[in-house]
Specification:
The complex is a heterodimer of chains A (288) and B (166). Chain A is α+β, with helices and mostly antiparallel strands and 288 residues long. Chain A contains 11 helices and 14 strands. In chain A, the strands form 4 sheets. Chain A has a 5-stranded antiparallel beta sheet with strand order 4-5-10-6-7. Chain B is an alpha+beta fold and 166 residues long. Chain B has 2 domains: 75 residues, Ubiquitin-like (UB roll) (Roll); 69 residues, [2Fe-2S]-binding domain (DNA polymerase, domain 1). Classes of the chains: A alpha+beta (288), B alpha+beta (166). Chain A: This is Carbon-monoxide dehydrogenase medium subunit.
Chain lengths: 288, 166
Amino acid sequence: MIPANFAYHRPSTIEEAVGLLASLGEEARALAGGFSLIPMMKLRLAAPEALVDLSRIAALKGVREEGPEIVVGAMTTQHQLMSDPIIAAKVPLIPETSAVIADPQIRYRGTLGGNVANGDPGNDMPAVMMTLDATYVLAGPNGTRSVKARGFYEGAYFTAAEPGEILTEIRIPTPAPGAGYAYEKLKRKVGDYATAAAAVQLTMKASTVETIAIGLTNVSETPLLAQDAMTILAGSRLEPEVVDRAVAAAEAITNPASDGRGPAEYRTAMAGIMLRRALARAASRAQG
Amino acid sequence: MSKVHVKLTVNGKAHEALVEPRTLLVHFLREDLNLTGAHVGCETGHCGACTVDIDGMSVKSCTMFAVQADGADILTIEGVAAPDGTLHALQESFREMHGLQCGYCTPGMIVRAHRLLQENPRPTEAEIRAGIAGNLCRCTGYQNIVKAIQHAAATLAGEPFQEAAE
């Protein structure tokens, strides 16, 4: 499987990358870790005329704290996220998710930016970023702008990013200390996309849910924020009948495809099961 | 399309070449450098037979272009043994513990295990299984591969190999 030929560019700054994408036009693609784009090119489902390799742009890498936010450079790899001390201490939902993405080899090179920017409903980080209420910073020919993860995903492979824009960083509001979290993913084998997966981030006080966010992966054309389920659970003590209602509300917004991972009804039911497990685990981890 | 000049180090030896941007790293290693140890298995990034070590990371060389490796320091299975041909502890252990049958996955397995043991010199069985989750073997059922990596870890640590109780 040999891809079609292309011209290769390797800029060292964001400005240079944006300039290249602007001058090369719509047949050029940005290359991050390559684990979505290169397989597509090998299958000739994608044949970009030019690739702009973002891997040597130092400004796109690393994790830092900036006021009330954790800022992650778009080219930070899953492997780095699994070993970064700031991420481990402040946003442990992220490494828990990274650990169930693909396999060790792919996690060494696969990036957070590539995972969230592609708009593939199978990717795990988009629902997690919606759960964390992250903001994506996009750089384009007209400067930079910010888009909420919760408003970024428009359809399978369709996002709010404009042609010529690249994702430069992901800004995550630092979760409250003692927050509970969990990512539960059902998959058939290592490296598979989720049959269904659920992310939960919550804070509790005196056994009562103070704040909660829930994201669902791969059970619709886009990642989902389970808003109704969040409303039902906020202020509750996670009583079984309340959890039942919230799970039903989350299942109601799913619209999975029937495919090799199972019929749609099964995948919806598994989204419910993943949510139940994630809720229980997040609550058990929450302090307060 | 114009070719791109790349410079990289493979198994301690410097190489320079002109490559088409679309040349996959595994093809460059096998066809330009005649290093045929990294195998082309599934070609879809799943099987890990093409695993090589790049700048301290295990990488599936079928899902990376050679141009992306410009400037990199690469280790392939050919570079794992000592220059005089003495096998590495992992290679000895795969032989000793029958960690291979057809051998097709073995170069990727050993290169991956090599990196795993650098990061975690005494992994548990569960850590070994998670660590080689990106490498498929269709013969052995993995049992003896895991045992071989445990054996190598013990050898490298200078400790006796203790087989886990069944």
